[in-house]
Write a structure and sequence with these properties.
The chain is of the alpha/beta class. It contains ten helices and 17 strands. A hairpin with a 2-residue loop joins strand 2 and strand 3.
Length: 295
């Protein structure tokens, strides 16, 4: 499996005894991405055995404390551990000012380069790309500038059937062409269709992270058919007025977004601290979108 998600925290504004503030680690082809970094994130990473020295890219959705107050502690821990490799930080431009001020008043200079990438929450843009994945922002509807993120695996070349290489005496230089979809003609001129020579890789996968946001259909096209959608569900739907006033979603809102986006699976999160039992939120969502899980 090419994607693995670890939820470090799924509470909303305040953590609880059983739920930490928002933070997740997404593993894609052995690369680790940190998504939001609320309080307790580095403790949770230790608990789950995640080697945070391997994290090179950190994505902060917005500047409410439950999504970034663990960041400075994590960066200072990496500094104290002697990290030298650069870290790329993607966030609202004001976060750079916050970090600079903390470094100034503590008379600290990181051992490692911290490369800041300012996000514009009004647009969608590609912010990272390598041979395996492309990451884009999702403009969300919250009280302050907020960006979600969608992580989409790139299609991989076809896999060539090993037994046909010797059977048809395929030259080495032709193998790459076949993997990219080309047909092959042998020395006699006989044509072999690509479908005879290769088999498909597993379908590519995608993960959309949407927290925090009020109910809006403005980003449905950006998360269309995603394999897993994390969408905030701060309240049950009987508190829909609270949700609208605070630019948050209910469990019903999250389910409707998943349904209209054609998502394969929905993961609820960002729960209000008022809920000790989360099963009612799950039940409410599953009435609309059956394939729903609780973070």
């Amino acid at each position: 499996m090419s994607f693995k998600l670890t939820v470090l925290g799924c509470s909303s504004a305040t953590p609880t005894l059983s739920r930490h503030s928002s933070a997740q680690v997404l593993k894609v082809h052995e690369r680790l991405f940190l998504i939001d970094c609320g309080e307790g994130a580095q403790i949770q990473m230790r608990k789950f055995g995640i080697k945070f020295q391997r994290i090179d890219h950190i994505f902060i959705s917005h500047l409410h404390g439950d999504h970034f107050l663990g960041l400075m502690g994590l960066l200072l821990t990496l500094h104290l551990l002697g990290r030298k490799n650069e870290i790329h930080l993607y966030a609202n431009p004001d976060l750079e000012k916050i970090i600079d001020l903390q470094l100034e008043v503590s008379n600290t200079n990181f051992n490692f380069p911290l490369i800041f990438h300012a996000l514009d929450s009004n647009i969608t843009e590609t912010i990272f790309e390598d041979e395996n994945i492309i990451i884009k922002t999702i403009p969300l509807d919250h009280r302050i500038p907020t960006s979600g993120f969608i992580f989409t695996e790139k299609p991989r070349p076809q896999k060539i059937r090993k037994e046909i290489i010797s059977k048809y005496d395929i030259p080495f230089e032709e193998i790459t062409k076949i993997k990219m979809g080309a047909d092959f003609s042998d020395k006699t001129g006989k044509l072999f269709k690509n479908s005879e020579l290769t088999f498909d890789n597993p379908p590519t996968v995608s993960y959309a992270y949407c927290s925090d946001t009020g109910y809006t259909e403005s980003y449905l096209h950006l998360i269309k058919n995603c394999n897993l959608l994390y969408n905030e569900a701060t309240f049950m739907h009987n508190l829909v007025k609270n949700a609208r006033d605070k630019y948050h979603c209910t469990s019903v809102d999250a389910a409707n977004i998943a349904l209209k986006a054609g998502a394969k699976q929905l993961l609820l999160g960002h729960y209000s601290a008022r809920y000790d039992d989360l099963q009612p939120l799950l039940k409410e969502a599953k009435q609309i979108f059956e394939n729903t899980l609780l973070a």
